[in-house]
């Protein structure tokens, strides 16, 4: 019987494939595909870790005081037995040799298969052994982490039967994990947690494959290798679809392919409205390797390079000036002379620097995030600023500062930029001129936009955070996702005022939040006077199509009425 699960649509399209479960564990697990020639080494690594845990448990057994309760000795016996159980060892080995999972991933995958079997056991005693199994696996995982040399990050590739399509299902994926899967073969993603504009969702969207987040129970209901349909337009996942449903979705898939082909013809068409307004379409990227996709979609520059992705998942070893300079330079050169807007590091909230360093703060989105973090680590910030200034010697670099709200933050930021320049001069190192911009993503900034216009060359509106902070809705929390609404009149009025103020001062204003890449919002943004949009490359052509059909002049009075209405969403499809 087909089971349907509803979540939040994140990236459009239909994927039909076999489920690959990425199990969660209390110990942080890196999910890597290993190269075929690493299989033996990976199996050996696992064997060593298991052997070490066996030795550890045996030593514990020997050293137990004589008077401990018999249950404790028995427990250690159970753990040792589980460790040597063929079901576990052979299963884990199979994940490594057949699917080319790294040892940690193989271990948690097998754990998941076995815990389901335990759950179904009639015998209560046996059912309860699940917890023992989890503890034993955790011990091995810890060993693997402690003893293992780092597994080289091979270009992730899944080993699959010819023509087999794989889709990934996880309880939760961090943005860094998601980035890791960017070069993999997965044709779709589902996670239980996450909101539509969470950073995990944003990275999924940038991969241009169907994705659904906030699916709550998906990782409980889906089993390894189940056939799934992911409908990224409707936010629905279908488990074990009937042949008729499959055929219907395969048809939809073919239609979407045709639509893509049709849109591709617009690549070289200038983005002009019917009344001749030229619109700038820029790309959002996460890493320098994304520039070919930006060029391919016909972007005329990068409007947002989220530089924090260079810093994430590195266990505290942040990239030094040289490494950053090379990365920024690659992005600049990759865009062949077009402007590249690089945002200074925006970590915190749902983008921790390191997954292992869980935030201890109750409200991380309101805490030491983005520019607040940079100003609290001036040496780190200066390093980034120097790297950016050096990259500017190779092309047009615009530096964008996230989450500013206070005059003091503006002052400190600009002082540090001047200091970085002076340091490079003192070293005699070549650097270039940069335009400096501020993100408007906190209501306080939108309400004092003229202060920002006095200090900065351009503004970029981060509607994802502007919505989050205006409405007090955590953008990464699926339980309040129904209240997260970029079309709330309060958000729209802040946005409209920012665009209008920029135009009045003759300074460029871009929108780089997810709203800019949503074709349903294009006419409204044009009507509000926006002339520069930055979005994932995959969104550029659908948005351009809307632009080509729009008359910006005629849209202005309508857009004004929309933002003044109590329920703008209801007017969006008019006139
Ligand atoms: C935004 O907040 O809209 C934005 C573009 O920045 P990020 O999504 O990275 O927070
Ligand atoms: Mg933001």
Automatic annotation (TrEMBL):
Coiled coil: none annotated. It is found in: Cytoplasm. It catalyses: L-histidyl-[protein] + phosphoenolpyruvate = N(pros)-phospho-L-histidyl-[protein] + pyruvate. Residues 262-550 form the PEP-utilising enzyme C-terminal domain. Its EC number is 2.7.3.9. Residues 167-235 form the PEP-utilising enzyme mobile domain. Its main location: cytoplasm. GO terms for molecular function: phosphoenolpyruvate-protein phosphotransferase activity. The keyword Transferase applies. Its cofactor is Mg(2+). Residues 6-129 form the Phosphotransferase system enzyme I N-terminal domain. Keywords: Cytoplasm, Kinase, Magnesium, Metal-binding, Phosphotransferase system, Sugar transport, Transferase, Transport. Belongs to the PEP-utilizing enzyme family. General (non sugar-specific) component of the phosphoenolpyruvate-dependent sugar phosphotransferase system (sugar PTS). This major carbohydrate active-transport system catalyzes the phosphorylation of incoming sugar substrates concomitantly with their translocation across the cell membrane. Enzyme I transfers the phosphoryl group from phosphoenolpyruvate (PEP) to the phosphoryl carrier protein (HPr). PANTHER family: PHOSPHOENOLPYRUVATE-PROTEIN PHOSPHOTRANSFERASE. This is Phosphoenolpyruvate-protein phosphotransferase.
């Amino acid at each position: 019987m087909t089971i349907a699960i509803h979540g939040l649509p994140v990236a459009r399209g239909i994927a039909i494939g076999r489920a690959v479960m990425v199990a969660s564990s209390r110990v942080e697990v890196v999910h890597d595909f290993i190269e075929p020639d690493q299989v033996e080494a990976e199996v050996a690594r696992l064997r060593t870790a298991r052997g070490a845990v066996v030795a550890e448990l045996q030593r514990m057994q020997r050293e137990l005081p004589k008077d401990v309760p018999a249950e404790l000795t028995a427990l250690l016996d159970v753990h040792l037995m589980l460790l040597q159980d063929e079901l576990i060892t052979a299963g884990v080995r199979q994940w490594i040799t057949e699917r080319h999972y790294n040892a940690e991933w193989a271990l948690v995958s097998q754990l998941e298969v076995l815990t389901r079997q335990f759950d179904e056991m009639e015998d209560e005693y046996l059912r309860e052994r699940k917890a023992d199994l989890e503890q034993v696996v955790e011990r091995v995982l810890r060993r693997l982490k402690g003893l293992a040399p780092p597994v080289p990050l091979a270009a992730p590739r899944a080993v699959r039967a010819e023509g087999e399509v794989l889709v990934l299902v996880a309880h939760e994926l961090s943005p860094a994990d998601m980035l890791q899967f960017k070069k993999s073969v997965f044709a779709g993603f589902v996670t239980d947690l996450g909101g539509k504009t969470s950073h995990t969702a944003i990275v999924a969207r940038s991969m241009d494959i169907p994705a659904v987040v906030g699916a709550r129970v998906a990782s409980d209901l889906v089993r390894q290798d189940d056939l799934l349909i992911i409908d990224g337009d409707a936010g629905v996942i279908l488990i074990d679809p009937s042949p008729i449903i499959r055929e219907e979705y395969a048809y939809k898939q073919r239609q979407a392919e045709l639509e893509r082909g049709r849109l591709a013809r617009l690549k070289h068409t200038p983005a002009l409205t019917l009344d001749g307004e030229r619109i700038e379409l820029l790309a959002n990227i996460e890493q320098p390797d994304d520039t070919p996709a930006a060029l391919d979609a016909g972007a005329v520059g990068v409007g947002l390079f989220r530089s924090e992705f260079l810093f994430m998942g590195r266990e505290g070893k942040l990239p030094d000036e040289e490494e950053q300079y090379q990365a920024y330079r690659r992005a600049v050169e990759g865009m062949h002379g077009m402007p590249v807007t690089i945002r200074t590091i925006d970590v915190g909230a749902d983008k921790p620097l390191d997954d292992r360093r869980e935030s201890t703060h109750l409200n991380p989105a309101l805490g030491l995030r983005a520019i607040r973090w940079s100003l609290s680590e001036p040496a780190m910030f200066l390093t980034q600023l120097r790297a950016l200034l050096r990259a500017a010697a190779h092309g047009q670099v615009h530096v964008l500062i996230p989450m500013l709200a206070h005059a003091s933050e503006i002052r400190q930021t600009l002082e540090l930029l001047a200091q970085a320049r002076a340091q490079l001069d003192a070293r005699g190192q070549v650097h270039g001129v940069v335009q400096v911009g501020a993100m408007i993503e906190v209501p306080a900034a939108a309400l004092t936009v003229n202060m920002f216009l006095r200090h900065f060359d351009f503004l970029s509106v981060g509607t994802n955070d502007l919505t989050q902070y205006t409405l007090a809705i955590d953008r990464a929390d699926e339980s309040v996702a129904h209240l997260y609404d970029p079309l709330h009149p309060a958000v729209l009025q802040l946005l409209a005022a920012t665009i209008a103020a920029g135009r009045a001062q003759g300074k460029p204003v871009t929108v780089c939040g997810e709203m800019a890449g949503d074709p349903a919002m294009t006419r409204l943004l044009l009507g509000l006077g926006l002339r520069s949009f930055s979005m994932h490359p995959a969104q550029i052509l659908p948005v351009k199509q809307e632009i080509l059909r729009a008359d910006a002049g005629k849209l202005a009075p309508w857009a004004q009425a929309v933002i003044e209405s109590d329920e703008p969403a209801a007017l969006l499809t008019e006139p």
